[in-house]
Design a protein that fits this description.
- Helices cover 43% and strands 21% of the residues.
- By secondary structure, the chain is an alpha/beta fold.
- It has a domain at 3-104 and 289-298: ATPase, nucleotide binding domain (Nucleotidyltransferase, domain 5, 2-Layer Sandwich), CATH 3.30.420.
- It has a 5-stranded mixed sheet with strand order 3-2-1-4-5. Strands 8-7-6-9-10 form a 5-stranded mixed sheet, with helices on both faces.
């Protein structure tokens, strides 16, 4: 009896499901990006994470969804390294993270997926099996509505507030996150140069500010609402472009990704989508993307 392995290699964390017979085990490891990471190192991390779960001497079928998984050269390089490091790997497929999330949301049936996590993008598969996508451009270009984009927009709003002396909950909380124990306003206000020093530190990840934006949104901060509205609008426009070019046979939109855990974010994104793409049913499925990878691994031959 072979193992089926589903992997969701995300920007900040990686979810893994291993099924052997009727038993499914959940694992995890750090995140990555297929376009930017060394395939030898990535294959080694995957093999290391799976080793404790593969206790029987049985073949393995693996499907992985990854940020950058639409780059076939990067996918093939990783598959080659996985086979080198893992002799009993019988079959391996590396797809985009959007593809496995779509499978998890719709189980192969028609529908449009909108992902809002560390990155973002819109995705569907038509009845002929052809993939259509908009967005998903990655960290160097930017993904509207994503954690990275929310963080960048929050930084700009904070710097504007600091330079103008205009108080906002968002700006104050971003400043405190960047330089602990400080304030952005009053005689003891932190200098913008100090904020920028933190931003340009080698280990700074702008997506860590997304939870700060969502917390400020829950506190009815106008600046946070403007940031989220602008980003949701850009993401909804991407979705409208996808709908216009792919003409899905069923009018369904599924929202997935880490930001969808915020009810306030979902309310704003849903309202903007309803305005931009009327007539679609919009929902937030409970199934995680890694389950889509596992389903595809189970169907692999």
């Amino acid at each position: 009896m072979s193992y089926a392995v589903g992997i969701d290699l995300g920007g900040t964390k990686t979810d893994i499901l291993v099924r052997h017979g009727t038993v499914t085990r959940s694992l995890g490891m750090e995140g990555g990006n297929l376009r930017m990471d060394d395939p030898v190192a990535t294959a080694g991390r995957i093999a290391g994470a799976l080793r404790p779960a593969l206790t029987h001497d049985a073949p393995v079928r693996l499907c992985m969804g990854a940020a950058g998984g639409d780059d076939r050269s990067a996918c093939n390089a990783l598959i080659t390294e996985l086979h080198k490091q893992w002799p009993r790997l019988q079959h391996a497929t590396v797809l985009s993270d959007q593809r496995i999330a779509w499978e998890a949301a719709f189980n192969g049936e028609p529908g449009v997926l909108v992902i809002a996590g560390t990155g973002s993008g819109c995705f569907t598969v038509n009845t002929a099996g052809c993939e259509h996508r908009t967005g998903g451009w990655g960290p160097r270009v930017g993904d509207p509505g994503s954690g990275r984009s929310l963080g960048r927009a929050a930084l700009r709003a904070t710097l504007v507030a600091a330079e103008s002396g205009t108080f906002s909950v968002l700006a104050e909380e971003v400043a405190r996150h960047l330089v602990a124990g400080t304030t952005l306003f009053g005689p003891e206000a932190v200098a913008t140069t100090e904020l920028l020093r933190s931003v340009y530190a080698p280990d700074f990840e702008v997506s860590v500010l997304a939870p700060v934006v969502l917390t400020a949104l829950d506190r009815n901060c106008a600046d946070a609402r403007h940031v989220v509205l602008d980003e949701a609008q850009a993401l909804a426009e991407q979705c409208r472009r996808l709908v216009n070019t792919s003409s899905p046979s069923r009018k369904r939109i599924a929202l997935m990704g880490g930001l969808i855990r915020s009810k306030a974010y979902v309310r704003i994104l849903t309202a903007v989508l309803e305005r931009e793409i009327p007539g679609y049913h919009i929902g937030t499925p409970d199934t995680q993307p890694v389950m889509g990878a596992l389903r595809l691994a189970l169907g692999a031959h």
